[in-house]
Amino acid sequence: xxxxxxxxxxxxxxxxxxxxxxxxxxxxxxxxxxxxxxxxxxxxxxxxxxxxxxxxxxxxxxxxxxxxxxxxxxxxxxxxxxxxxxxxxxxxxxxxxxxxxxxxxxxxxxxxxxxxxxxxxxxxxxxxxxxxxxxxxxxxxxxxxxxxxxxxxxxxxxxxxx
Amino acid sequence: xxxxxxxxxxxxxxxxxxxxxxxxxxxxxxxxxxxxxxxxxxxxxxxxxxxxxxxxxxxxxxxxxxxxxxxxxxxxxxxxxxxxxxxxxxxxxxxxxxxxxxxxxxxxxxxxxxxxxxxxxxxxxxxxxxxxxxxxxxxxxxxxxxxxxxxxxxxxxxxxxx
Amino acid sequence: xxxxxxxxxxxxxxxxxxxxxxxxxxxxxxxxxxxxxxxxxxxxxxxxxxxxxxxxxxxxxxxxxxxxxxxxxxxxxxxxxxxxxxxxxxxxxxxxxxxxxxxxxxxxxxxxxxxxxxxxxxxxxxxxxxxxxxxxxxxxxxxxxxxxxxxxxxxxxxxxxx
Amino acid sequence: xxxxxxxxxxxxxxxxxxxxxxxxxxxxxxxxxxxxxxxxxxxxxxxxxxxxxxxxxxxxxxxxxxxxxxxxxxxxxxxxxxxxxxxxxxxxxxxxxxxxxxxxxxxxxxxxxxxxxxxxxxxxxxxxxxxxxxxxxxxxxxxxxxxxxxxxxxxxxxxxxx
Amino acid sequence: xxxxxxxxxxxxxxxxxxxxxxxxxxxxxxxxxxxxxxxxxxxxxxxxxxxxxxxxxxxxxxxxxxxxxxxxxxxxxxxxxxxxxxxxxxxxxxxxxxxxxxxxxxxxxxxxxxxxxxxxxxxxxxxxxxxxxxxxxxxxxxxxxxxxxxxxxxxxxxxxxx
Amino acid sequence: xxxxxxxxxxxxxxxxxxxxxxxxxxxxxxxxxxxxxxxxxxxxxxxxxxxxxxxxxxxxxxxxxxxxxxxxxxxxxxxxxxxxxxxxxxxxxxxxxxxxxxxxxxxxxxxxxxxxxxxxxxxxxxxxxxxxxxxxxxxxxxxxxxxxxxxxxxxxxxxxxx
Amino acid sequence: xxxxxxxxxxxxxxxxxxxxxxxxxxxxxxxxxxxxxxxxxxxxxxxxxxxxxxxxxxxxxxxxxxxxxxxxxxxxxxxxxxxxxxxxxxxxxxxxxxxxxxxxxxxxxxxxxxxxxxxxxxxxxxxxxxxxxxxxxxxxxxxxxxxxxxxxxxxxxxxxxx
Amino acid sequence: xxxxxxxxxxxxxxxxxxxxxxxxxxxxxxxxxxxxxxxxxxxxxxxxxxxxxxxxxxxxxxxxxxxxxxxxxxxxxxxxxxxxxxxxxxxxxxxxxxxxxxxxxxxxxxxxxxxxxxxxxxxxxxxxxxxxxxxxxxxxxxxxxxxxxxxxxxxxxxxxxx
Amino acid sequence: xxxxxxxxxxxxxxxxxxxxxxxxxxxxxxxxxxxxxxxxxxxxxxxxxxxxxxxxxxxxxxxxxxxxxxxxxxxxxxxxxxxxxxxxxxxxxxxxxxxxxxxxxxxxxxxxxxxxxxxxxxxxxxxxxxxxxxxxxxxxxxxxxxxxxxxxxxxxxxxxxx
Amino acid sequence: xxxxxxxxxxxxxxxxxxxxxxxxxxxxxxxxxxxxxxxxxxxxxxxxxxxxxxxxxxxxxxxxxxxxxxxxxxxxxxxxxxxxxxxxxxxxxxxxxxxxxxxxxxxxxxxxxxxxxxxxxxxxxxxxxxxxxxxxxxxxxxxxxxxxxxxxxxxxxxxxxx
Lengths: 162, 162, 162, 162, 162, 162, 162, 162, 162, 162
Description:
Chains A, B, C, D, E, F, G, H, I, J: Catalyzes the reaction of cyanate with bicarbonate to produce ammonia and carbon dioxide. Chains A, B, C, D, E, F, G, H, I, J: It is an enzyme of class 4 (lyase). Chains A, B, C, D, E, F, G, H, I, J: One of its GO terms (molecular function) is cyanate hydratase activity. The structure is a homodecamer. By secondary structure, the first copy, chain A, is α+β, with helices and mostly antiparallel strands. Chain A has 2 domains: 3-68, lambda repressor-like DNA-binding domains (434 Repressor (Amino-terminal Domain), Orthogonal Bundle), CATH 1.10.260; 85-144, Cyanate Lyase, Chain: A, domain 2, CATH 3.30.1160.10. Helices cover 45% and strands 17% of the residues of chain A. Chain A has helices at residues 3-16, 21-28, 33-40, 48-58, 62-68, 85-109; strands at residues 112-126, 133-144. Chain A has a two-stranded antiparallel ribbon with strand order 1-2. In chain A, strand 1 and strand 2 (133-144) form a beta hairpin. Chain G binds chain H through residues 81, 83, 85, 88, 92, 95-96, and chain H through 81, 83, 85, 88, 92, 95-96. Strand 2 (133-144) of chain A pairs antiparallel with strand 2 of chain B, so a sheet runs across the interface.
């Protein structure tokens, strides 16, 4: 059994039982929506306790439940550039705004990156009379480039408030 | 003169005059930071009034000022996948979380996309005792797929609250 | 069951029953042809009412009918550049005329794009003594780039009639 | 002198003299807008009479005028997939709607293609209270696949009205 | 059943019955060899009469016969650049001689292309004492670029004999 | 001086002196048109005698003349797939007809290839009341795969008339 | 049955019967090792007599035996650049030494290529006290570019000893 | 001035003055060798104090010195896969050993990654009678995937010692 | 049976029997962890003795055991660039630090490479109060480029201590 | 000065002075032809003594001479797949014969590779009445995969004569 086969099976169950992701997330337990749905789509792992509840709710086998707790080979179901319009828009935002984002983050924080691992994201509906909006809040720990071997007087990464 | 040559010249001026983006943004006028910096890096255009102020502050020629008001061929300075670590992390976030984002947005809003055109973004420092965080807030208008020719009883896009 | 398997099955049924797309479209109900055929080929979704009629006409199972109402991962059955000559011609038209289209649309509408979501298309035969022509009419809402944070005096997107 | 250098020079002149494409098109003479602008951007050629008028209006040299009448190596200034959002939307429309377009054109016309050479296109503003729309009308001669060597009773290309 | 599966089945039958393409072509009826073999390999369609004879000769089912009359998604079994040496040589000829071919065809015919749709090809053995040669004769209709909207005095495409 | 710079210079001279390829070919001497034009475009070499005459006619320096006799790094000015429509049609013909060409050549000649080195090509106008045609005649020596080490009874390459 | 399936089956038989390639080559008959093993791996064809012996030795069916005599679609099981280190080294040798090889072969032989069709290769162990070496001897017929249409005084290809 | 131009200039100075990297590193000050050399090659930034010393030693201008303190667009001078053999071996090691490294790191540390930002590396000569060896020591902080929103009983990332 | 199928089967057994890699490595015998796990994942071979023990522990068939001793086609399960974050970080480290690594290794050792074949690697946990670290120690034999044919006075590869 | 600029300059000198590679190699001194020519084309380095003689013969500056002794970034002037026919044939030979070469080398030598660093190559004319042949002799040290950590009874790499 591959992780792709498990994902396909979960989507079949969801269709057969006419479940929503919201119902599945609630039955799985407490964790960010995007992480639970990501795990069921083969991009994240579920902690053991959540995997057990999710498997029970969906009617998975013990072996399938255990596979949900394994770290998957991430990123393999996402053709890049994305062919799907919903996903492509995020790719485009990065392509167009990337240079400015790099300059603004570095001027504020110094040399480093926003972590994609110690990272949280929420997706919400933002009501708007001109048409509701998708609001996406991302928060990732800033990780400064470490200057190993640098003498004591060297500030960490050229940060403004270093 | 190409837009790339203008961008390079602006970066040279910024270095020579030891300016920060914050100073340049303030001198340019009122508009989202990411749009002003994006325009100076050749990814956006500046409205005429802002271009005039920015050019005056930086010491650009009339012709350079006018070029700043032209819509550029966007996205050409962003190799994809990004080779730069700061930018790559956003690419990775899309690759890994994309499948879940698609499912969650569609379950909430129905068939459609978040606009990358009617779109706003802010980047902030989020103080945190375990290490400050980069907070990125995105908000884009939801655009439902239009079902042209569909009869009157058909809801717009399969949305929950359609 | 994957969406590709459903598409293949629909094509098998169409062949076995010697149906035309026109017959299938009529049996499915009121909506643009390109949307109905697109859904049956796995690129669009069918509203519930239309999926029910289409499934009844083709003899699909309940599960297959429901899958027709799901938003597919779009664009995955279209190798780019297209290997098929009929499709390649459109790709070529974009490659050759793209620069002029960008200039003409922007001069007329200002900075922005034609929506690919709020978009309608019709394909017709245009009789011509020198050989009939394929007439394709596209109409997409113009979406101006939003200048968030811009002061009140700034016109929306540099449009001629802004 | 390369064609790219000529294109860049024309854009410099347009910026310096604060010309619009509409003014340039009118000064160049009678031909579809998209063809004239395409030629000035290095994707089409101008007939001699139009090249002369265009060159006079823009102030080009004899050699530059002559280059405008040469057939260019088309398509080389269009990175594919397009990085620019305005152009990408057309690429996406082809990727998403391509399979349906192929089926619908073939069912109506039989085996063949829409010509990209005997082809006309117009771009217009379509006023709409919900937001003006970009209307693009394309018309290309249908070219049936020729069945060379086929006996007399064989219809040209499986066309409906063959 | 996919078109690839049909192709594979035809190759199995050919191997089992020890048939040559020449025998199959003769049994299928009158049409250029390259078109008949192309159709059996999934790149062309067979007119109904020829599909019936071909299917009878090979022992195909009704459904398989009908699939032979469908226009295939062309070009999908040809990796490019070709990995096979016989096919690669044609690719190389285009790469090396392409620039000269473009100049010579345009000088003779004006701005336009050789049609790949109204196109005929024959492959023959050309006996030669220094080693027999493969002779390939191609003939495609010249299609001049149409200058839509051009005034009456403009020759069609800059042709020598326009 | 690179070969590309020489090619660009020759094109500048041709434009300035308003020469046609036919005039240049005649002044260069006796050899297939496609080879002479190919050499001037940097894809072939000219024999010394022809290089001398060509250089004299065009007004090239001794060093430029000598470069024309050097074997170039072939194929570097031909983006593949070709972006230019005239060249793309040949690419498409190979993609679509390649599988049939391979079968037909191998059934006639056995295992081997048509040489792209011992190869001749001519391009002609084929008058036709329905529209003149481009006629391309190719002839390449058939090169059978050599079965080194094979015993005496083994025919060269499975050829029909081996 | 595809050629890949046959290759996989031969590898299964080899594993089950614990055969070496040397044993298989000897049982197949007289021909260069690299050609026999290449055929069994789906890259070459076996002459009929050798296919019969090979099939008998391995226990293949008549249909499988016949497939071994068919010319395969070469090169499809070799991802390029090679991911396997043993194969990559040859790729690297070409990348690094290619420019020098081109110059040296052309200075000695004139304009042309080493044939990859009339080509022989042997792989041997070269004992060496500092570590045995892999010795690869290649020999391919030199094929001079033919200057079709060239006058009588033109030497074949600029060769030193032309 | 671009960063590439600065890198080229530094390499010219190093060649003219016959400097070694070791001399440059010592003159620049205290920091890991790989970081200092990386900065001078345009992949890292130098802290201000070190940039000043390095610039003085090399004879750079004030503007060049300041550019050394800017964060570069990383990774743009490294074609991937690397064409250079020394660099390719590391690429190959990752391709071949990657799957095992992923399993072993995850079994030891749980779900997460080794940081490429909080990362140190040293390169040393390891004397060996059979031939000296290159010893590379890497050390990167382990960053566990954060399970945002997970309840209190959930261990951080499935780590053995979580 | 393909090597991929064997890998998948081993992962299924590991999941069913709830084994860790550490248990499997210990049961397989003495050899570097990364080599044993690599072999079980289809990237390395196991010596016969170790394959026997591993197969007995996992419950593999004789044929599967024998396949473990075969040299695999390496590198085929590693998409590059890696889509998985854990693996991508190593790719990024090479892209960013590659230029400096090349300079430092060559200055110390002269012209040559670190072997990826005579190579050893160990992965360890490095406890650290600020967060444990992944320590990776690599050691590969330095292989100097051989200057074949060079006279006696030429040092091997420009090495410092040559 | 970049290495590419130096290569271009050497080719200009060679053309101006009408030198052959043979003359340059002889003037440079004793080393394999392919290495000397490779160095002058920017793919190898010259030992100091040879660089001095080569520079004197060609009339290079001191700085150019020194650059010839530097290790270049190898492989960057070789587009892959090669567009040039002479070079492509070697690429094709690897693609077609690669699988057999891997099997034959591994059966003879065990698990490992032929070194591309401790490697020698010679190119010769092999006179043949049916047409002279290019003979290429390669010899590279066999490098067995090292099984680090393996117990004493384990043979090095599964070699026949291990």
